[in-house]
Amino acid sequence: MSRFPQQYRDTLNCYTRNWYTRNWYTPGKILVVVLALPALLIPTMVLCYIFWQAAPVLNWGFLSGTADGVGFGVTEGIFSQLVGSLLLATMACLIATPFALGTALYYRTFATPWQQRLLSAMFNMLQGIPPIVFGLCGLVVLVNLFAWGVSLLSGAVVLAVVVLPLLVLNTLVTLERIPNEYSEAGSALGLTKGAIILRLWLPRSWLPLLTGLLLAMARALSETAPIMFTATVFSGVVWPDSIFSPVTTLQTHIFYLAQEGNDPLLVSIAWGSAAVLVLLVASFSLLARLLQKSGGN
Protein backbone atom coordinates (compact mmCIF):
# COMPACT_ATOMS: atom_id res chain seq x y z
CA MET A 1 0.00 0.00 0.00
CA SER A 2 1.47 3.31 -1.10
CA ARG A 3 2.10 5.94 1.46
CA PHE A 4 -0.05 9.05 1.55
CA PRO A 5 1.85 11.75 -0.35
CA GLN A 6 3.83 14.00 1.94
CA GLN A 7 2.48 17.20 0.42
CA TYR A 8 -1.09 16.09 1.08
CA ARG A 9 -0.24 15.12 4.61
CA ASP A 10 1.35 18.54 5.21
CA THR A 11 -1.72 20.27 3.80
CA LEU A 12 -4.05 18.19 5.99
CA ASN A 13 -1.95 18.82 9.11
CA CYS A 14 -1.89 22.56 8.40
CA TYR A 15 -5.68 22.65 7.99
CA THR A 16 -6.14 20.63 11.19
CA ARG A 17 -3.88 22.94 13.15
CA ASN A 18 -5.67 26.02 11.83
CA TRP A 19 -9.09 24.57 12.68
CA TYR A 20 -7.90 23.64 16.15
CA THR A 21 -6.45 27.10 16.68
CA ARG A 22 -9.75 28.70 15.66
CA ASN A 23 -12.03 26.43 17.67
CA TRP A 24 -10.19 24.90 20.63
CA TYR A 25 -11.06 27.83 22.87
CA THR A 26 -14.79 27.82 21.98
CA PRO A 27 -15.71 26.15 25.31
CA GLY A 28 -13.61 28.78 27.04
CA LYS A 29 -15.45 31.53 25.20
CA ILE A 30 -18.78 30.03 26.22
CA LEU A 31 -17.64 29.87 29.85
CA VAL A 32 -16.52 33.51 29.77
CA VAL A 33 -19.87 34.59 28.31
CA VAL A 34 -21.80 32.55 30.89
CA LEU A 35 -19.80 34.15 33.72
CA ALA A 36 -19.98 37.66 32.26
CA LEU A 37 -23.71 37.73 31.52
CA PRO A 38 -24.83 37.89 35.18
CA ALA A 39 -22.34 40.69 35.83
CA LEU A 40 -23.95 42.67 33.01
CA LEU A 41 -27.58 41.63 33.35
CA ILE A 42 -28.02 41.94 37.12
CA PRO A 43 -26.97 45.63 37.37
CA THR A 44 -29.00 46.41 34.24
CA MET A 45 -32.07 44.71 35.69
CA VAL A 46 -31.62 46.52 39.01
CA LEU A 47 -31.39 49.90 37.27
CA CYS A 48 -34.42 49.16 35.11
CA TYR A 49 -36.40 48.12 38.18
CA ILE A 50 -35.41 51.29 40.07
CA PHE A 51 -36.54 53.57 37.24
CA TRP A 52 -39.69 51.54 36.63
CA GLN A 53 -40.68 51.93 40.28
CA ALA A 54 -39.70 55.61 40.23
CA ALA A 55 -41.59 56.47 37.05
CA PRO A 56 -44.89 57.50 38.76
CA VAL A 57 -43.23 60.32 40.74
CA LEU A 58 -40.43 61.46 38.43
CA ASN A 59 -41.34 64.88 37.10
CA TRP A 60 -40.03 68.43 37.28
CA GLY A 61 -42.16 69.26 40.28
CA PHE A 62 -40.67 66.31 42.17
CA LEU A 63 -37.16 67.61 41.49
CA SER A 64 -37.92 71.28 42.10
CA GLY A 65 -39.79 70.70 45.35
CA THR A 66 -43.19 71.95 44.19
CA ALA A 67 -44.99 68.72 43.38
CA ASP A 68 -48.28 68.20 45.19
CA GLY A 69 -48.49 65.14 47.36
CA VAL A 70 -44.77 64.48 47.47
CA GLY A 71 -42.43 64.41 50.46
CA PHE A 72 -42.51 63.33 54.07
CA GLY A 73 -45.12 65.96 54.86
CA VAL A 74 -46.83 64.93 51.61
CA THR A 75 -46.44 68.52 50.39
CA GLU A 76 -43.06 68.97 48.71
CA GLY A 77 -40.44 67.39 46.45
CA ILE A 78 -36.80 66.52 46.98
CA PHE A 79 -35.06 69.74 45.97
CA SER A 80 -33.82 70.47 49.49
CA GLN A 81 -32.52 66.90 49.83
CA LEU A 82 -30.79 67.16 46.46
CA VAL A 83 -29.11 70.43 47.41
CA GLY A 84 -28.14 69.03 50.83
CA SER A 85 -26.42 66.03 49.25
CA LEU A 86 -24.51 68.24 46.82
CA LEU A 87 -23.52 70.67 49.59
CA LEU A 88 -22.13 67.87 51.74
CA ALA A 89 -20.21 66.25 48.88
CA THR A 90 -18.82 69.57 47.64
CA MET A 91 -17.69 70.72 51.09
CA ALA A 92 -16.11 67.32 51.77
CA CYS A 93 -14.07 67.48 48.56
CA LEU A 94 -13.05 71.09 49.20
CA ILE A 95 -11.82 70.12 52.67
CA ALA A 96 -10.04 66.95 51.52
CA THR A 97 -8.36 68.28 48.36
CA PRO A 98 -5.67 70.50 50.01
CA PHE A 99 -4.72 67.68 52.41
CA ALA A 100 -4.62 65.14 49.58
CA LEU A 101 -2.50 67.39 47.37
CA GLY A 102 -0.12 68.28 50.21
CA THR A 103 0.27 64.63 51.24
CA ALA A 104 0.94 63.50 47.67
CA LEU A 105 3.48 66.28 47.08
CA TYR A 106 5.27 65.47 50.33
CA TYR A 107 5.29 61.77 49.37
CA ARG A 108 6.77 62.55 45.96
CA THR A 109 9.34 65.19 46.89
CA PHE A 110 10.43 64.93 50.52
CA ALA A 111 9.40 61.59 52.07
CA THR A 112 12.07 59.02 52.82
CA PRO A 113 11.45 55.39 51.76
CA TRP A 114 10.20 54.35 55.20
CA GLN A 115 7.90 57.38 55.33
CA GLN A 116 6.53 56.45 51.92
CA ARG A 117 5.85 52.92 53.13
CA LEU A 118 4.16 54.29 56.24
CA LEU A 119 1.95 56.66 54.26
CA SER A 120 1.01 53.95 51.76
CA ALA A 121 0.07 51.55 54.56
CA MET A 122 -1.92 54.24 56.36
CA PHE A 123 -4.01 55.23 53.35
CA ASN A 124 -4.57 51.62 52.31
CA MET A 125 -5.81 50.98 55.84
CA LEU A 126 -8.10 54.04 55.68
CA GLN A 127 -9.61 52.73 52.46
CA GLY A 128 -10.53 49.48 54.19
CA ILE A 129 -12.24 51.01 57.24
CA PRO A 130 -16.07 50.82 57.02
CA PRO A 131 -17.56 54.30 56.60
CA ILE A 132 -19.90 53.74 59.54
CA VAL A 133 -16.82 53.72 61.80
CA PHE A 134 -15.92 57.20 60.56
CA GLY A 135 -19.47 58.26 61.28
CA LEU A 136 -19.26 56.95 64.83
CA CYS A 137 -15.94 58.75 65.39
CA GLY A 138 -17.46 61.93 63.98
CA LEU A 139 -20.40 61.62 66.36
CA VAL A 140 -18.10 61.29 69.37
CA VAL A 141 -15.46 63.87 68.41
CA LEU A 142 -17.14 66.48 66.21
CA VAL A 143 -20.76 66.37 67.31
CA ASN A 144 -20.23 65.88 71.05
CA LEU A 145 -16.63 66.78 71.99
CA PHE A 146 -16.25 69.82 69.71
CA ALA A 147 -19.94 70.68 70.21
CA TRP A 148 -20.51 71.24 66.49
CA GLY A 149 -23.74 69.30 66.75
CA VAL A 150 -25.39 67.44 63.91
CA SER A 151 -24.42 69.87 61.18
CA LEU A 152 -23.26 70.42 57.65
CA LEU A 153 -19.68 70.97 58.83
CA SER A 154 -19.55 67.78 60.91
CA GLY A 155 -20.81 65.68 58.02
CA ALA A 156 -18.49 67.35 55.52
CA VAL A 157 -15.42 66.70 57.69
CA VAL A 158 -16.35 63.04 58.12
CA LEU A 159 -16.97 62.63 54.39
CA ALA A 160 -13.65 64.37 53.71
CA VAL A 161 -11.88 61.65 55.70
CA VAL A 162 -13.81 59.00 53.74
CA VAL A 163 -12.76 60.37 50.32
CA LEU A 164 -9.23 61.42 51.37
CA PRO A 165 -7.53 58.08 50.47
CA LEU A 166 -9.12 58.14 47.02
CA LEU A 167 -7.88 61.67 46.36
CA VAL A 168 -4.39 60.95 47.72
CA LEU A 169 -3.93 57.82 45.60
CA ASN A 170 -5.27 59.56 42.49
CA THR A 171 -2.90 62.50 43.05
CA LEU A 172 0.06 60.15 43.57
CA VAL A 173 -0.67 58.31 40.32
CA THR A 174 -1.00 61.64 38.52
CA LEU A 175 2.32 62.96 39.83
CA GLU A 176 4.12 59.71 39.06
CA ARG A 177 3.12 60.04 35.40
CA ILE A 178 4.95 63.36 35.05
CA PRO A 179 8.30 62.62 33.34
CA ASN A 180 11.40 63.12 35.47
CA GLU A 181 12.86 65.23 32.68
CA TYR A 182 10.62 68.12 33.74
CA SER A 183 12.04 68.14 37.25
CA GLU A 184 15.59 67.75 35.97
CA ALA A 185 15.14 70.60 33.47
CA GLY A 186 13.63 72.81 36.16
CA SER A 187 16.48 72.09 38.55
CA ALA A 188 19.00 72.82 35.80
CA LEU A 189 17.34 76.21 35.29
CA GLY A 190 17.66 76.95 38.99
CA LEU A 191 14.00 76.53 39.93
CA THR A 192 13.18 75.66 43.51
CA LYS A 193 11.03 72.68 44.48
CA GLY A 194 8.05 74.98 44.95
CA ALA A 195 8.53 76.58 41.55
CA ILE A 196 8.83 73.18 39.88
CA ILE A 197 5.57 72.10 41.50
CA LEU A 198 3.69 75.30 40.63
CA ARG A 199 5.07 75.90 37.13
CA LEU A 200 5.73 72.40 35.81
CA TRP A 201 3.81 69.74 37.72
CA LEU A 202 0.42 71.32 38.43
CA PRO A 203 -0.19 72.75 34.92
CA ARG A 204 0.34 69.26 33.48
CA SER A 205 -1.75 67.44 36.08
CA TRP A 206 -4.83 69.60 36.63
CA LEU A 207 -7.05 67.49 34.35
CA PRO A 208 -6.33 64.14 36.09
CA LEU A 209 -6.70 65.90 39.44
CA LEU A 210 -10.11 67.19 38.38
CA THR A 211 -11.04 63.66 37.31
CA GLY A 212 -10.15 62.37 40.75
CA LEU A 213 -12.17 65.17 42.34
CA LEU A 214 -15.26 64.15 40.37
CA LEU A 215 -14.80 60.52 41.41
CA ALA A 216 -14.51 61.68 45.01
CA MET A 217 -17.79 63.59 44.59
CA ALA A 218 -19.44 60.40 43.34
CA ARG A 219 -18.03 58.48 46.31
CA ALA A 220 -19.24 61.10 48.79
CA LEU A 221 -22.72 61.09 47.27
CA SER A 222 -22.95 57.32 47.65
CA GLU A 223 -22.21 57.30 51.41
CA THR A 224 -25.07 57.12 53.90
CA ALA A 225 -23.85 55.81 57.26
CA PRO A 226 -21.32 58.60 58.10
CA ILE A 227 -23.77 61.44 57.53
CA MET A 228 -26.63 59.79 59.42
CA PHE A 229 -24.68 60.28 62.65
CA THR A 230 -23.21 63.68 61.94
CA ALA A 231 -25.07 65.81 59.40
CA THR A 232 -28.63 64.94 58.54
CA VAL A 233 -32.13 65.09 59.89
CA PHE A 234 -35.19 63.70 58.19
CA SER A 235 -37.62 66.56 58.55
CA GLY A 236 -37.98 70.01 60.06
CA VAL A 237 -35.13 71.52 58.01
CA VAL A 238 -35.37 72.86 54.47
CA TRP A 239 -32.19 74.94 54.07
CA PRO A 240 -29.25 75.09 56.49
CA ASP A 241 -28.88 78.51 58.10
CA SER A 242 -25.10 78.04 58.50
CA ILE A 243 -22.44 75.36 58.38
CA PHE A 244 -23.46 74.44 61.93
CA SER A 245 -27.04 73.64 60.89
CA PRO A 246 -28.23 70.14 59.91
CA VAL A 247 -29.27 69.28 56.37
CA THR A 248 -31.56 66.84 54.65
CA THR A 249 -30.03 64.54 52.02
CA LEU A 250 -31.21 62.07 49.43
CA GLN A 251 -29.37 59.22 51.14
CA THR A 252 -31.13 59.50 54.48
CA HIS A 253 -34.39 60.48 52.75
CA ILE A 254 -34.36 57.12 50.97
CA PHE A 255 -33.43 55.28 54.16
CA TYR A 256 -36.27 56.68 56.22
CA LEU A 257 -38.93 56.49 53.51
CA ALA A 258 -38.05 52.87 52.75
CA GLN A 259 -39.06 51.99 56.30
CA GLU A 260 -42.61 53.21 55.60
CA GLY A 261 -43.41 50.08 53.63
CA ASN A 262 -47.14 50.29 54.35
CA ASP A 263 -47.57 53.59 52.51
CA PRO A 264 -47.36 53.14 48.70
CA LEU A 265 -46.86 56.88 48.16
CA LEU A 266 -43.84 57.10 50.45
CA VAL A 267 -42.34 53.95 48.92
CA SER A 268 -42.75 55.47 45.44
CA ILE A 269 -41.04 58.64 46.65
CA ALA A 270 -38.18 56.52 48.00
CA TRP A 271 -37.78 54.89 44.58
CA GLY A 272 -37.86 58.30 42.90
CA SER A 273 -35.20 59.62 45.27
CA ALA A 274 -33.09 56.53 44.59
CA ALA A 275 -33.35 57.07 40.83
CA VAL A 276 -32.24 60.70 41.18
CA LEU A 277 -29.31 59.68 43.39
CA VAL A 278 -28.25 57.01 40.88
CA LEU A 279 -28.36 59.58 38.07
CA LEU A 280 -26.36 62.02 40.17
CA VAL A 281 -23.59 59.53 40.97
CA ALA A 282 -23.55 58.23 37.39
CA SER A 283 -23.24 61.79 36.04
CA PHE A 284 -20.13 62.53 38.09
CA SER A 285 -18.61 59.14 37.21
CA LEU A 286 -19.35 59.60 33.49
CA LEU A 287 -17.94 63.12 33.49
CA ALA A 288 -14.79 61.84 35.19
CA ARG A 289 -14.49 59.13 32.54
CA LEU A 290 -14.87 61.65 29.72
CA LEU A 291 -12.22 63.90 31.24
CA GLN A 292 -9.91 60.91 31.62
CA LYS A 293 -10.32 60.01 27.96
CA SER A 294 -9.81 63.58 26.79
CA GLY A 295 -6.67 63.81 28.92
CA GLY A 296 -5.40 60.55 27.46
CA ASN A 297 -5.89 61.84 23.95
Automatic annotation (TrEMBL):
Segments forming domain ABC transmembrane type-1: 82-288
Keyword Membrane attributed: yes
GO cellular component: membrane
Keywords: Membrane, Transmembrane, Transmembrane helix
Subcellular compartments: Membrane
Transmembrane segments: 30-52, 86-107, 128-150, 156-175, 196-218, 269-291
Annotated SUPFAM superfamilies: MetI-like (SSF161098)
Gene Ontology terms: biological process: transmembrane transport
InterPro entries (UniProt xref): MetI-like (IPR000515), MetI-like_sf (IPR035906)
Main location: membrane
Alphabetized PANTHER family for the sequence: PHOSPHATE TRANSPORT SYSTEM PERMEASE PROTEIN PSTA-RELATED
Listed name of the protein: Phosphate transport system permease protein PstA (TC 3.A.1.7.1)
Lineage of the organism: unclassified sequences, metagenomes, ecological metagenomes
